[in-house]
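Give me structure tokens for this 150-residue protein.
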Amino acid sequence: MSKAKQLYVIESVPALKKLLSNRSVTISNRLRMLILIKNNKGENFSKNKLGALLGVSSSSIQIWRQLYVKGGISLLLEDKRIGFPPYSPELNPAEKMWARFKRAFTNQFFKSLDEISLFIENTAKEINAAIVKSTCAYKYIFFDPFWNEI
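Here you go.
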């Protein structure tokens, strides 16, 4: 296992907290990352641990660290990319629907693109609200009244 990279944060915690006020979630997570690192000088946080603490992917943490090292706080705050959440299929139930399509598509033989198009079209027509609910199967998603309307 590789060792966590050490990052030296120049700004003070009060200065970072001041920057934190009235910021979007994307920017505030970046600042929280720096605060966590600054507050825990003795412990080098891995990108995985920081990602888990902040609720973003480890790749987002890695990009933010690189931005900070390259251009300091200004480059970190100027970057327009958003941080992605860690792999969370419950936040994107469509993943399970695509898996359903893939399973139906597996071991099929098609002679032309038209046959593939027809297969996909017919498979999509078979899907209804009950199938979507049972396939996605994340019960807490269905607490929203939207799901009762379909």
